[in-house]
TrEMBL record:
Protein's organism: marine sediment metagenome
Name recorded for this polypeptide: DRTGG domain-containing protein
Amino acid sequence: IPFQLKAGLSGNVVEIISNRGAVVETTGALIQGVWGNDLIGSGNLVVRTDTPDEVLSANKLDTSLRGTIVAVGTCEDEEVLKIAESLPLRGLIFASMRPDLIPTAVEIKVPVILMEGYGNCPMNVDAFELLTRNNGHTVSVNAQAWDRYRG
């Protein structure tokens, strides 16, 4: 039975492991967050902020961002999440987000990852610098929860 498994990153398959999986070779950097909405996406990264604590407002999202992964400090508005889905974006990377927005973030079909947690926390400087250096590059967002049995 054919089965499609998303790798969660761009790269080249260099080995097939019969009945188990594949080895994917890639280059890049890894930033791990603390929460995600269980989706995977990839696209060109757009850092939509000059500071690690800037709040993303709905008026900063427009059709020029369609198909991109947007990184910014904080999400405080449910409308931002809904617009992200309607464009559609391929992912959102936030430092933090208001906890009451969790149900909407889980509901939308756009990967959402929080780097720091809930509330109004700025992104740590190292993660912000790494994202800024990779602005415009193709990135992958794996917002799936880690499962000790599946990996």
